[in-house]
Amino acid sequence: MAKNVINVNKCNSNEVIGKFFILNKTQSNYNQGWITIGKTLKLFIKDIKEEIEYELDSENVIIEKYLLFFIDINNNKLIEIKDDKTLNLTRRNDKIFIVLLDKSIKFSKIEDIPLLHKWYLDNLANYES
Question: Which stretches of the chain drop beneath a pLDDT of 70?
Answer without folding.
Answer: 1-13, 55-59, 129
